[in-house]
């Protein structure tokens, strides 16, 4: 069947018009893709962050599973097994509560980074998840400071520890820690927001572009108040404790079990700070500062890489804190591992000279008379 001349001419004109439209459509699509590929950043460089879509979901999933199991076990022992609490038990319980609240928020971040920075939930939930991260971070630091201060008083100021190391003071201090951290971190609920770019919604861990300058000032203040000062206090306490613990005890040649436990606690807390808290705060400070400096893109990309790597390290404190309960909490070990605690107490009793026991009893009686 032959085509009519008019229809042939119409088809030719349609093909010509389509040929003219194709370059325009391709240029429009390429421009749209370019807009979607350029992330809104207050600096000139575009970072290569594909690695975080594997690193963060995997690391957060591990922290969620391990941290949730260990902290739920710790909470069970604290609540149902330990009948009488001391100051250390009180601080450790609140530390476990803080860690548990944080790890239950991790599945949202696992999904977010697995979907390559696409937040399908509400803006309020984005704010809460980021708020829980920083609240847990600084609650952990302050409760570790409380545990370290309590142990410092027991080693270096035993008479004072009998008065200020009582449970009622520990409860007041724990309440103050929660109030201070919540007040200090409440601006996170204001700064953190979401933004839509193409078909994805980003849940920012900093702030919107127009508020970034204010966010840097706020973060710097929190760095000094909630990290630098507690870290320096812990270092001073541990230096004084180490000097006291390393002094030879009169009448014995072996280090007592209480001294060994104190040294273990010093090592664990320092490991938590060096592995979890210190790298995160250093790289975050550099990351925020370098955004306003005219540096080369390779340097900016390197510090961005370091910052993204240290974020999951900061989360691992939720898994390392329960180790502190086992090694530093005598009552916790007693109910978690009864046979181990019994053997440790027996060995400590057998290795303690009678003269040292009498001196310790005399010191305790004298302290009680002064307190009363």
From TrEMBL:
Superkingdom assignment: Eukaryota
Gene Ontology terms: cellular component: plasma membrane
One GO BP annotation of this record: positive regulation of mucus secretion
A GO molecular function held by the record: G protein-coupled purinergic nucleotide receptor activity
Main location: membrane
Membrane-related topology note: Multi-pass membrane protein
InterPro entries: GPCR_Rhodpsn (IPR000276), GPCR_Rhodpsn_7TM (IPR017452), P2Y2_rcpt (IPR000356)
Ranges for domain G-protein coupled receptors family 1 profile: 70-325
Gene: P2RY2
Matching PANTHER family: P2Y PURINOCEPTOR 2 (PTHR24231:SF17), PURINOCEPTOR-RELATED G-PROTEIN COUPLED RECEPTOR (PTHR24231)
Gene3D superfamilies from the UniProt entry: Rhodopsin 7-helix transmembrane proteins
Signal peptide start-end: 1-31
Any Pfam family the entry gives: 7tm_1
Protein name, UniProt field: P2Y purinoceptor 2
Compartmental location: Cell membrane
Transmembrane segments: 58-79, 91-113, 133-157, 169-192, 215-241, 262-282
Keywords: Cell membrane, G-protein coupled receptor, Membrane, Receptor, Signal, Transducer, Transmembrane, Transmembrane helix
């Amino acid at each position: 069947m032959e085509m009519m001349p008019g229809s042939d001419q119409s088809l030719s004109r349609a093909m010509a018009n389509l040929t003219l439209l194709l370059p325009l459509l391709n240029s429009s699509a390429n421009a749209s893709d370019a807009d979607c590929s350029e992330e809104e950043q207050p600096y000139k460089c575009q970072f290569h962050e594909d690695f975080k879509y594997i690193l963060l979901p995997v690391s957060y999933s591990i922290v969620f599973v391990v941290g949730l199991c260990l902290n739920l076990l710790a909470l069970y022992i604290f609540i149902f097994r330990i009948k009488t609490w001391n100051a250390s038990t009180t601080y450790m319980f609140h530390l476990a509560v803080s860690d548990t609240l944080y790890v239950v928020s991790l599945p949202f971040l696992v999904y977010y980074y697995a979907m390559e920075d696409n937040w399908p939930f509400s803006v309020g939930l984005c704010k809460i998840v980021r708020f829980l991260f920083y609240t847990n971070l600084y609650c952990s630091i302050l409760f570790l400071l409380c545990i370290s201060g309590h142990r410092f008083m027991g080693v270096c100021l035993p008479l004072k520890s009998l008065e200020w190391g009582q449970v009622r003071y520990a409860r007041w201090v724990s309440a103050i820690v929660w109030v201070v951290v919540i007040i200090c971190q409440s601006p996170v609920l204001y700064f953190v927001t979401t933004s839509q770019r193409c078909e994805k919604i980003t849940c920012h861990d900093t702030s919107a572009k127009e508020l970034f300058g204010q966010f840097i000032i706020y973060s710097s203040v929190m760095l000094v108040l909630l990290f630098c000062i507690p870290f320096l206090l812990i270092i001073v306490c541990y230096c004084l404790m180490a000097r006291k613990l390393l002094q030879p005890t009169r009448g014995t040649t072996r280090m007592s079990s209480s001294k060994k436990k104190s040294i273990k606690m010093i090592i664990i807390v320092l490991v938590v700070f060096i592995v979890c808290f210190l790298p995160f705060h250093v790289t975050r400070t550099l990351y925020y500062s370098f955004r306003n400096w005219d540096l080369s893109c390779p340097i900016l990309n390197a510090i961005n890489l370091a910052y993204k790597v240290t974020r999951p390290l900061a989360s691992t404190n939720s898994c390392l804190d329960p180790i502190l309960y086992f090694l530093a909490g005598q009552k916790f070990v007693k109910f978690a591992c009864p046979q181990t605690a019994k053997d440790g107490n027996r060995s400590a009793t057998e290795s303690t000279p009678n003269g040292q026991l009498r001196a310790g009893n005399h010191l305790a009686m004298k302290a009680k008379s002064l307190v009363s």
